Amino acid sequence: MILKRIQNKSFLFLLWLIFLSVSAWWSSPVWCDELKIDKINDIIENANDIDGQKVTIQGEVIGDVMARKDHVWFNIQDESGAMGVWATGQLAEQILVTGEYSYHGDWVEVAGTFSKADKELNGEVCVRAEMVDVLRRGHLVDHKVNSAEVNVALILSVLAAALLLLRMVIERR
Amino acid sequence: MILRPQLKDFKIIGFYLGKIVLGLAIFMVFPLVVALLIGEIGPMYDFICSFLFCIIFGVATHIFCYTEEEPKWSHGMIVVSLAWILLSIVGALPLFLSGHFNSYLDATFEAMSGFTTSGLSLANDLAHMSYAHNLWRHLTHFIGGQGIVVVILTFFVRGASGAFRLYVGEARDERVLPNIRQTARFIWGVSIIYLILGTTCLAVVGMLEGLSVHKAFFHGVCIFMAAFDTGGFLPQQQNALYYHSLPLEIVSMAIMILGSINFRLHYVLWTGQLNEIRRDFEMVTFFSSVMFLTALVTLGLIRMNVYSGWVTMFRKGFFQVVSAHTGTGFQNIYPVQFMHEWGSLALFGIIFAMALGGCANSTTGGIKALRLGVVGKSFINDVKQYVSPESAVFFQKIHHIKDMILSEKQMRAACMIMLAYLGTFMIGGIVGMLCGYPFVESFFESTSATANVGLSCGITSPSMPNILKVTYIVQMWAGRLEFISVFALIGFILAMAKGR
User: Fold this and answer.
1) How far, in Å, CA of B115 to CA of B145, rounded?
2) DSSP secondary-structure letter at B241?
3) CB-hemisphere CA count at 13 Å for B402?
4) What is the ipTM metric for this complex?
5) Range in A28-42, A75-89, B262-276 the model is least confident about
6) What is the DSSP letter of B399?
7) How many other CB atoms are found less than 10 A from the CB of residue B495?
8) Maximum Cα–Cα distance for chain B, whole Å?
9) Which of A74, A171, B57, B132 is least buried, going by the fewest C-beta atoms within 10 A?
10) What is the dihedral angle through the alpha carbons of B87, B164, B280, B397, rounded to the nearest 10 degrees?
11) Which of A68, A99, A56, A115 lies closest to B333, judged by CA?
């Protein structure tokens, strides 16, 4: 009887172990393929795994190229996210157009070492660039005025003027 | 017996709502002029249309709802609660026209987040947004933070008692000066002086850190409005990460703390009584809480071995605690880093800091340091009462601008608001989980929305479910108004349905 119970317990224990093993196997990262870094967001999502490793990213230079002594900071963005790049002034010299409302910035490829908290740079999340290559030159963006919006503005201004007039008439009475 | 609202009640509400929308129109002139000056013609038309819409709404309500009756308490509460919804819908108009939002709901979310000084954002591609639209995003922080109703009080409301009712409805129950209009003018006067000083300081630091002159001033004014009004928007998608600048983060922290201080205390400090900072019960509670939570977050980060070196630890840990505690929501780490790197203890510290918020009668959201202190004191009072003879009577004295004895009513009110916040954190968390997000992430984002903080762990994005967007809009709104006006609005709706 006791033996049977132990056997039962062992059986249950064995089942529990199998369950745990299957669960661990199921959730194991072994399933994952090798980390594929195509987009900037891939780096951010896998920051722990690729910290200190060489990466190559592409993106549009946005905002400002901020000079700090002999180095510069600039930010690049693709459709998934944006990332700061720390580069020598010499490497960044070729960047001429940066993205903002009126411009599409230079599209660059940056190769360098990714750091999730660079100690020498006071904990910056960044790529220390070893190579910056402009793949496509940025350009001016021609923002066309929406003619429908101009018409709406005209109609609204007439309506607003009419209402103001009505208010003046009512107040005079 | 509940009385059904009459036509005159609707007229009073409509009349004041119209004035508030007219007030919004005045603010739209700023980005409109900027767009005109720098030649952003498309954005200029966005603001012309929005401005005219506000004028039409304001004038129409003035004609059709004209009344000389002053608003009663209930009217004040309902006007304020409806005004914040209306402002978000109308304020979203130029944002939607900018083309940087997937839907009008997203633009309304952004406007509500701006006005309530939350800082959660659904904007796409901020890097290419026009200066005028970006200025408008930040201006919503300034308008909401100083209180749009305060603007109306300053310019449009004649009667002082009606003005006070609107003022209180906006979760500001302490007068800085005896006259409510003087109070409103003081708030705006001080804010504009700080705006000039803060912007100049930030612009100088920005230039030293490599920004061009005009961009340094533009970023300076945006950072100031977001930091002083404890908002959280910044002109770029990367938020504070964009600048890669420790000095800029230090200046921002000082402005965030300045913005989270009670306006009454600002007044006292302006009159030269600087030692009030050390004596004020609310400030002591606030700074104690910041210190405790910084220690907790630092311990959590050390335990997880996330950062090496004290400078990095201070820069990330302390900055995020100040950003969370003041309800600002600036981020110098990526949202996913909270979840992937920070560990449970540091995350708990940040969530707790977000929930607590800054000082009462400031631009911060959350439970507020004063209430936390009052609840703590009332707890100590109760414990003393239990262990002492029945006949013993205890009073809790605090120094908040002046010496005062805590009344039972004050303690009960603090507990009630605290419970309302906790309940709202929970509801948002549950909706997040129903939408398929994990427990911690759901509660993080829910707390951030309700306490008008704006820190995100990655849930808030244009692709999140619409139901969650609506939930966060409601949470930001209710949290900003500290629930009382919301309850008044619910009561009004019930009275419309069931009253006699």
Assistant:
1) 7
2) G
3) 3
4) 0.87
5) A28-42
6) E
7) 16
8) 77
9) A171
10) -130
11) A115
Which region, left, alpha or beta, applies to residue B244 given φ > 0 means left and ψ of -120 to 50 means alpha? left
pLDDT at A31: 38
Q: pLDDT for B221-247, tens place per residue?
A: 999 999 999 999 999 999 999 999 999
CA distances from A171 to A164, A167, B63, B66, B154 (A): 11, 6, 9, 11, 23
3-state secondary structure of B400: strand
Q: What is the CA radius of gyration of chain A?
A: 30
A100 touches chain B (CB under 8 A): yes
DSSP annotation of B397 = E
**Distance (Å, rounded) from C-alpha A12 to C-alpha B304?**
36
- For B430, the token pair is 């549950």
Chain B residue closest to A80 (CA)?
B125
> Does any CB of chain A come closer than 8 Å to the CB of residue B236?
yes
Contact of A84 with A75, CB cutoff 8 Å: yes
Chain B closest-CA separation from residue A163 CA (Å): 7
Q: If you average pLDDT over residues B31-54, what whole number do you get?
A: 96
- Residues B289 and B83: their CA atoms lie apart, in Å, by 33
Instruction: Dump the DSSP string for chain A.
Output: -HHHHHHHHHHHHHHHHHHHHHHHHHH-GGGS-S----SHHHHHHTHHHHTT-EEEEEEEEEEEEEEETTEEEEEEE-SS-EEEEEEEHHHHTT----BBTTEEPPEEEEEEEEEEEEGGGTTEEEEEEEEEEEEE--EE------HHHHHHHHHHHHHHHHHHHHHHHHHH-
pLDDT of residue A32: 37
Binary contact (B63, A72; C-beta < 8 A)? no
Q: What is the C-alpha separation between B143 and B181, in angstroms, rounded?
A: 17
The CA distance from B59 to the nearest CA of chain A, in Å, is 7
Q: Give which of B243, B130, B237 is closest to A79, Cα–Cα.
A: B237
Q: Quote the longest CA-to-CA distance of chain A.
A: 105
B284–A contact, CB cutoff 8 A: no
The C-alpha of B406 sits at a distance from chain A's nearest C-alpha, in angstroms, of: 45
Residues paired with residue B167 on neighbouring β-strands, in sequence order? none
